[in-house]
Design goal:
Length: 475
């Protein structure tokens, strides 16, 4: 149910210069989703009446990502006035008329903070009757964070940014996480009075604490139980740390839901992946995008699947696959490369050192080894011999190859598309097929073998080959 008294403001306007990237910080991927999408998912889980995202740097790219993750989110543009206080101020101006509740402020670069923690924070804020509340954390190294300054009675007095902090204040270990809850009326009234008179020349949202206290309103500081939940992402190292923490949670979640994962340390699973019970994941496996794996399938080791669909009891070993569908009981690998458009039927096989692209391989059909199969359709129960190549490109256009059902093709064949191999047909080893092969026919085009006696002695005298031939007595 929607909470009609809750609005969530997500701050996503910053450039994130420490990422040293052309991609905005909040759009870097984490478990398959942009960083900001994780924050939006948390806001959605809170069932807020309104979610507003404040954007500025690379405005259109960030706004598109926000809308993709949460179509109902309100996009708010921050103006030239810098600072988190101004970002929230413009967000309040965009709130629909009639709203009169609490405003929860989140940062678009803090992706691990979960809805359960925020519900506890909101309950403390509302239960204590505070006009404003700050989520805090105690860190062994608080460098870079605003410090929480408490009074002698333990109450929150103010938040001071590190650049503006005294020596004693810098030594404080309790930090501001950048997560706030405010009653709308007090927030709106006091934001207007906040100035940019500080070392950075910014309108700090942190100054709301002093503004509310000066007005006689209660302000609370609520420590978070697990500090890692509120860790922000400012550089690539922090992104990797967050990815490792989130992946460990994802892997453990699947293990508790009946998936065997032999080596969690080398297994990476996106949040968007779906696994059935009794799936087995072997070491060195990456499952990405919209990949789904059905019951009883075994994936890995050393396998990467992107946006793939894996059927029940299928096995996929040492394979790189994208946008592929693997049927029930089918076998793939080792060392297979499945490009987009590959569909392998039930109990089929794509074997060692096989590359496929836009290929539909039918039920119980096999491409066992050393082949390239592109723009091809293979029927039921056929076997494509080792070393087969479908020559699908004429330099200008792509063409299709059709292999019928119960076909047996020889080793080292080349099918020059467009070409069709009829049902039940055979092709001889080394055949280059340029014309259609009728059903039940044998296609061969090899020349008779010719042996030239004495060629080595005449052309390679004195070599090991010549001596071996002479000693054999068979020359």
């Amino acid at each position: 149910m929607t909470d009609p008294r809750l609005a969530v403001v997500i701050l996503a306007a910053g450039q994130g210069t420490r990422m040293k990237s052309a991609t905005p910080k909040v759009l870097h991927k984490l478990a398959g989703l942009p960083i900001v999408a994780h924050v939006l998912a948390t806001a959605r889980e809170l069932s807020a009446a309104h979610v507003l995202a404040v954007v500025r740097h690379e405005r259109d790219r960030v706004a598109d990502a926000v809308s993709a993750a949460l179509p109902d989110a309100i996009i708010v543009d921050q103006d030239e006035v810098p600072g988190t206080g101004r970002a929230v101020e413009v967000a309040l101006e965009a709130l629909p008329e009639g709203f009169d509740g609490d405003v929860l402020v989140l940062n678009g670069d803090v992706p691990l903070l979960d809805a359960a923690t925020l519900r506890e924070f909101l309950a403390a804020h509302r239960g204590g009757g505070a006009a404003g509340s700050v989520l805090t954390a105690v860190l062994p190294d608080p460098t870079g964070y605003g410090r929480i300054v408490r009074g002698a009675d333990g109450s929150l007095e103010r938040i001071v940014e590190q650049k503006d902090a005294s020596e004693d204040e810098v030594a404080i270990g309790e930090i501001n996480t950048g997560v706030y809850a405010f009653g709308l009326s007090g927030l709106r009234d006091r934001l207007a009075s906040i100035t940019t008179s500080n070392a950075q020349g910014e309108k700090y949202l942190t100054d709301m604490v002093a503004a509310l206290r000066d007005a006689g309103s209660a302000v609370s500081a609520v420590p978070v139980a697990e500090p890692w939940l509120v860790e922000g992402i400012n550089d690539r190292a922090q992104l990797a740390d967050a990815a490792a923490k989130l992946n460990a949670l994802i892997v453990r979640g699947w293990q508790l839901n009946g998936v065997t994962i032999q080596d969690p340390a080398t297994t990476w699973i996106d949040l968007t992946v779906t696994l059935a019970p009794d799936v087995e994941i072997l070491p060195g496996t990456q499952l990405q995008g919209a990949t789904t794996v059905a019951t009883g399938a075994v994936i890995g080791p050393d396998t990467t699947l992107v946006d793939c669909e894996i059927g029940e009891r299928a096995t996929v070993k040492r394979t790189d696959a994208t946008l592929a569908v693997i049927g029930e009981g089918a076998s793939v690998g080792p060392f297979s490369y499945l490009r987009p458009g590959t569909v392998l039927g039930r109990d089929g096989k794509i074997g060692t050192f096989v590359e496929t692209k836009n290929a539909r391989i039918g039920e119980r059909s096999k491409v066992p080894h050393l082949s390239y199969i592109g723009d091809t359709e293979v029927g039921v129960g056929s076997n494509v011999g080792a070393g087969t190549i479908t020559a699908n490109y004429d330099g200008v256009h792509k063409h299709s190859t059709v292999v019928g059902s119960h076909v047996r093709t020889g080793s080292h064949n080349v099918f020059v598309a467009p070409v069709r191999i009829g049902d039940g047909a055979y092709t001889g080893a080394g055949t280059v097929v340029r014309k259609d092969v009728p059903a039940g026919s044998l296609a061969i085009n090899v020349a008779p073998q010719r042996n030239i006696a004495g060629w080595v002695a005449a052309n390679r005298p004195g070599t090991d080959a010549a001596r071996a031939a002479a000693e054999s007595g068979d020359e």
